[in-house]
Amino acid sequence: MIAETVCSAVAAAGLGIAVVTAYRKRFLAATRIAAYSLVPLGLVMTGVVDWLADTAFSPTAWAGFGVLGVSWLLFSTTRAVERRRGGTRKDRKEAGAAAQSEAVAPAASAPSLGPGSRQSTRPATAPKAQAGEDFSDIEAILKKHGI
């Protein structure tokens, strides 16, 4: 009974504010305020407020919310595990089959990009380092990467 009275009072106050807003020539805002203020009144008239009050004090309803929470937790856990594994079983089988068809020799590194489209303008031999400078480790790294 108290909830219905409070909702009716909120609706009446909202409609009063809407009238004042419309008096100030802000009709769009007044219409929006009137729409929001009619929501509690509509909830009282449809019986949603009574249903919420009965639900709030019902242990069976709270147990139902607990079951829904556990269900949501299970769904989200399985979803996270599925993402971590790389999809569903069917997706993993398809990925495994694709990996088998594109297999490379075990000792091979990543496939090369093939010959370049433009020619190098650098000289074939790099100039020797001056006395006192040892660039052999840098040269080894560059040769390793094909530069």
How would you describe the shape?
Answer: elongated
Helicity level = 55-70%
What is the strand tally? 0
Straight-line distance between termini? 84 Å
- The mean pLDDT is 80
Main sheet record: none
Structural class label = mainly alpha
The succession of helices and strands, N to C, reads HHHHHH
Number of helices: 6
Characteristic key phrases:
0% strand, 6 helices, 147 residues, mainly alpha
Kindly describe this structure:
68% of the residues lie in helices and 0% in strands. The chain is mainly alpha-helical and 147 residues long. Helix 1 packs antiparallel against helix 2. It starts with a helix and ends with a helix. The mean pLDDT is 80.
